[in-house]
Amino acid sequence: MSAEQVDVAVIGAGAMGAATAWHLSRRGVSVEVFEQFEPGHVRGASHGASRNFNVTYDEPDYLAWLREARVLWRELEDESATALLEVTGIVNHGGGRDLAGAAAAIRAGGFGAEMLDAGEAGRRWPGIRFDGPALFTPDAGRLNADASVAALLSRTVAAGGRVHARTRVEDLAVRDDDRVEFRAVSDTGERAVRARRVVVTAGAWTTRVLGTTDAASALPRLRVTQEQPAHFAPRDVTAPWPGLNHLPAPGGAETAWFPAGIYGMLTPGEGVKAGWHAAGPEIDPDRRRFTPDPDLTAALVRYAREWLPGVDADDFREITCTYTSTPDSRFVLDRVGPVVIGAGFSGHGFKFTPVIGRILADAVGRD
Prior knowledge:
Elements: E1 4-11, H1 15-26, E2 31-34, E3 51-53, H2 60-80, E4 85-87, E5 90-93, H3 99-108, E6 114-116, H4 118-124, E7 134-137, E8 141-143, H5 145-158, E9 162-164, E10 167-176, E11 179-186, E12 189-200, H6 206-210, H7 214-217, E13 223-227, E14 230-234, E15 243-246, E16 262-267, E17 271-276, H8 294-307, E18 311-318, E19 321-325, E20 332-336, E21 339-343, H9 353-365
Parallel strand pairs: 1-2, 1-12, 2-9, 5-15, 12-21
Antiparallel strand pairs: 3-8, 4-8, 5-7, 6-7, 10-11, 11-12, 13-19, 14-17, 14-18, 15-16, 16-17, 20-21
């Protein structure tokens, strides 16, 4: 079987793969994207209508990425004529974080930050219960994940890139510094492919795709979990809802039962989304049942009842997704020979998507 020759192959058409392909195609690089499922599928981590554009970071590097990401999201909106990022603000509360210290870091990083007492926070957002100080970041907001990935892929195709849907990559093998070979398997058959560079952005399938390559041995352990946020019906559809993060103090009398911290936001047309961060069970993505864990469901309903007075805790719809996490929640952005890796986004990567794509595209071009 003669091999089809491509310049750069991107494996995985979720957010990070789509963003990498977008950057490469904008630079005039010939890029082909291989996605084992259909674009916009619900088996991974890039689907759904809402993600927080959360700027509550202490680290200057993350804040610099966020400044760049904000610019790139607006560029993508202009190119695609699609609204993607809405500024709603995000409110952070709970004693598990030094909020005043975070506020100082956020201001130094170029974003607004406002400290509020519990009374003032409650007056602004009566749908959320506060039991202590709150940190409001007015420049934060909400991203439409589905629309973002679709825009990245459409702009890639418009610039000359190709997307191969329902095409699984098997038997990835590095032959030399400028040659990677694999089989591309689809419903209509399979073909041999040879690429000068390969970018692996396969999410929960990263370890499987990399197989026994040297790039696989360079990975930290990637833990794949199924997470299960839910959309709760708001009691007043006109009430204001910022995004939210609730990180309780360890051993707090009213929060000791929390399995993890909480994140949330309003998803227009669906309700108020709330979920535990990285609390779900470890799973094999190919044997996933998509069934929510009943204990986590019960805990989330209790949280809504006790801490979100603006929702009906008995009227909700659960959804599931995956996290692929590293031990320290830091991202894997690396190149080993001709293979570039973007992995381990640990449940907090989506907001950085266009920056991650730029970094991985830079790695492709690095000699």
